[in-house]
Specification:
The protein has 123 residues and is mainly β. The chain has no helices and ten strands. The strands form two sheets. It has a five-stranded mixed sheet with strand order 4-1-7-8-9, with no helix packed on it. A hairpin with a 6-residue loop joins β8 and β9.
Amino acid sequence: MSDPITGTFVVLNGTPNPITKIVATHLCAGHTDSLEADSLASGESSAAFDLNAKTSHDDRWSVTYLNNNNNTVTGNVKCDYKQKDGGQVTVIAVFDDSFSILKPQSHPCLNVAYNSTSAAAGG
């Protein structure tokens, strides 16, 4: 049997420049939690968004944003959220070349390489 685990998560801009059009998602047991922010200055974090997980299920995280060169940066990782993390804030820290999932109690997922960086479509 799987038990629900709740908490919150934020995105922290660890790059030296502003980032825009930030979307971060947490997927667990068929439920998706989404965080959206228009822009974050260097060193700034987003508002906290709800996180819903369940024990005995995989947790998948993704992050997408536009960097200061107007390139779309995308990454994702499986990084399980544990019962001992519940009720606390998880930080998705984005950097120029990688991102990290910093959970309150369980092991973090550090220096995850981005899947792609591509020029944003013109319009």
